[in-house]
Each structure stands twice: as structure tokens, then as C-alpha cells.
């Protein structure tokens, strides 16, 4: 009898493993190409509402501001992963996401609160983290803001993917819906953002298990300790990249958040301009490449992502293509050797550095 139950357990375990690693559905597109599909959040879901108190509206200056994007390239073998980008649409970044075989969406959700509610010092060391979580989930985590479920990132992302699965069958978007069709399959989701968006991505991934987190120029929230909370997402799935001239780095904000997240367990801080891919399998990547700008710190803040501030070589091509691909595709099981906390990184940011 024990042998029978043991065999049943092994069969069940094997079935679970096969299901978890099942290949993504192939495309059957008669005219394969890269698609950039747009839709307005207010039209996809009639429950969606404006929240002008945190600059969360559907139109600005007479133009739609709730336009969302879904991008996929049916010419590229699919990875079966969905990137949710938590900042304004970045066409050059999405070109690469699609080129990697990933699906990508950019959703319009209540993220305009930051300029209104980010007051220093915060009332406690979880204040901004709770607001981020409410904006992401639409659940009641913070007394400082009231965001209903239809206006949170989770529901906006679900509604957009559901819309895309109906309107764009070539893209096989339905693979990212949960089995019951009532939400997303978060095990296939890569959360990503820059600055404010990278910080919310990290906070959300502590709450909700996801496939990976890609953090550009962040996370920040340098006066908070939510980074140390138990994480639903394994920490080896968090990847970060920034420029050293970014004030978030020079002010020890990023090194602090990376250490509090425990990313030192997966390798040292690696300069990608001096160490070739795979960068020692580290999760903490920096660049000190020359920034040509009248405002180097501001330009450096955007230099971590493809676009106008990204750094180019003498040939006019971006020098960090390998870095961007690594962040999104590097196998999570391959990690660097653990290192101790950096004693020179200032953890207690409540005491300002002397200039």
C-alpha cells in the first residue's frame, strides 16, 4: 500500500512539474509581426473611475491619458512571460521586451499619488509602502488613500489582458489568465518599472508571488523598512540596475534598498562596464559610463533604460543591450556568491549626510 501511495505521489509531482514548465502556446499568425495594441482603460472597464485628488484622470489638456499598451512580436519564439511596466510607455524598452519573446503591457493605474503624498519624514517606516500596495492591489492597505479594486494595477492589468485575448487572438494573451479566468496567472508575470515604478514593483512582489522583478533606477523609499518584510517572491528573482551618478545611488538609497531586500546573498554589486555578461550572476548591477549632459544626475536617472538618456558607444549603438536582456531573461536559479553587507552603505537615512 505504501508503495502504491508513493507511486501516486511521484506521478502527481511529475504532473505538477510538467504543468509548471509547459511550453507556451505557439503563434498561428498568418502575417507575423510586432504588434503594439492600444486601448483606453475607461473604455475597457466601465467601473473605472477618476481620482483627481491624486492626479488620476482619464484626460489631460483635452487628450486621453488612460491609454494602455499591449505589445507582442509573433515573429519571435514566445517565452510565455508577461511584463507589466509600471511607468509611462517606453517604446524602445517595449521593442526589446517583444524582441526577447516576452509579452508586455503598460497599464494606467493610480500612481499619481507620489507627488501628493510623499512627505518627509513619513509618519512611520511603512507609510509609502502601504500606499504603493493599495495603488497596486485596489485593496484597503492605507488610510492615506482610497483606491477601489477596479482602479488598482492588478485589476487594470487583468482587464487589459482579458481585452487583448478577445481582440487580438494572434497574440495568445489568454495564457496569462488564471485557470478560472477571474484574474492573472501571476506566476507568469514579470513586474518592472523605473524609479517610482521600480519601487512599487518591489513592494508588490513582496505581497504577491511573481516570476521576476526588474528594477531600474530604484527602489527608493529610503526612509522606510518594508523591504525587510516576508516576501511572497523569492529574492533571487529580483534584478536591479542603475547609474552611479543617479542621486538615488550617490545618496545610498538604492544600495540600501538592495541590501534590505537581501540581494547581497546573490552576489556583489557589479559594474557592467568592467565585468562581462553574465556579470557574475549578480542581482545588483551598476554602470559608471560617461554621461554627456548639462545635468548628469538627472540624465543618469534615465540612463538605465533604453531611450533618450541611455548611453551610446562611438558606433551610435546602446552599450547596455546585454544588461537589459540579462535583467529580463537570466535564469533565476543561477546566482552569484553571497557577500556581507556593505558597511559604507548608509542604512539609517533619517540622519542626513553632512555635505
From TrEMBL:
Signal peptide residues on this chain, from the entry's feature table: 1-22
Keywords: Signal
Region described as Disordered: spans on this chain: 292-313
Alphabetical list of InterPro entries matching this protein: AB_hydrolase_fold, BPSS1187-like
SUPFAM superfamilies for the chain: alpha/beta-Hydrolases
Transmembrane annotation, as ranges: none
Protein's UniProt name: Alpha/beta hydrolase family protein
Lineage: Bacteria, Pseudomonadati, Planctomycetota, Planctomycetia, Planctomycetales
Amino acid at each position: 500500500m505504501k508503495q502504491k501511495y508513493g507511486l501516486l505521489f511521484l506521478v502527481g509531482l511529475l504532473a505538477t512539474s510538467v504543468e509548471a514548465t509547459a511550453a507556451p502556446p505557439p503563434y498561428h499568425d498568418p502575417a507575423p509581426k510586432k504588434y503594439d495594441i492600444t486601448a483606453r482603460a475607461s473604455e475597457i472597464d466601465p467601473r473605472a473611475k477618476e481620482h483627481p485628488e491624486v492626479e488620476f484622470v482619464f484626460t489631460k489638456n483635452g487628450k486621453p491619458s488612460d491609454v494602455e499598451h499591449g505589445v507582442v512580436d509573433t515573429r519571435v519564439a514566445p517565452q510565455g512571460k508577461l511584463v507589466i511596466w509600471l511607468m509611462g510607455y517606453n517604446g524602445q524598452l517595449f521593442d526589446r521586451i517583444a524582441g526577447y519573446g516576452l509579452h508586455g503591457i503598460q497599464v494606467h493605474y493610480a500612481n499619481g499619488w507620489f507627488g501628493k503624498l510623499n512627505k518627509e519624514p513619513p509618519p512611520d517606516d511603512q507609510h509609502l509602502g502601504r500606499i504603493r500596495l493599495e495603488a497596486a492591489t485596489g485593496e484597503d492597505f492605507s488610510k492615506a488613500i482610497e483606491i477601489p479594486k477596479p482602479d488598482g494595477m492588478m485589476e487594470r492589468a487583468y482587464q487589459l489582458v482579458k481585452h487583448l485575448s478577445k481582440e487580438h487572438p494572434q497574440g495568445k494573451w489568454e495564457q496569462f489568465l488564471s485557470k478560472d479566468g477571474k484574474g492573472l496567472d501571476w506566476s507568469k508575470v514579470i513586474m518592472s518599472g523605473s524609479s517610482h515604478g521600480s519601487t512599487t514593483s518591489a513592494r508588490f512582489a513582496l505581497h504577491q508571488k511573481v516570476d521576476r522583478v526588474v528594477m531600474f533606477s530604484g527602489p527608493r523609499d529610503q526612509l522606510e523598512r518594508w523591504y525587510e518584510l516576508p516576501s511572497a517572491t523569492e529574492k533571487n528573482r529580483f534584478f536591479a540596475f542603475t547609474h552611479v551618478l543617479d542621486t538615488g545611488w550617490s545618496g545610498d538609497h538604492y544600495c540600501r534598498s538592495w541590501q534590505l531586500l537581501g540581494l547581497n546573498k546573490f552576489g556583489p554589486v557589479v559594474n557592467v562596464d568592467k565585468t562581462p555578461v553574465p556579470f557574475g550572476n549578480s542581482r545588483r548591477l551598476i554602470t559608471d559610463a560617461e554621461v554627456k549632459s548639462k545635468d548628469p544626475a538627472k540624465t543618469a536617472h534615465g540612463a538605465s533604460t533604453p531611450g533618450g538618456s541611455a548611453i551610446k558607444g562611438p558606433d551610435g549603438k546602446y552599450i547596455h543591450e546585454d544588461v537589459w536582456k540579462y535583467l529580463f531573461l537570466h535564469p533565476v536559479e543561477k546566482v552569484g556568491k553571497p557577500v556581507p553587507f556593505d558597511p559604507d552603505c548608509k542604512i539609517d537615512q533619517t540622519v542626513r549626510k553632512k555635505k
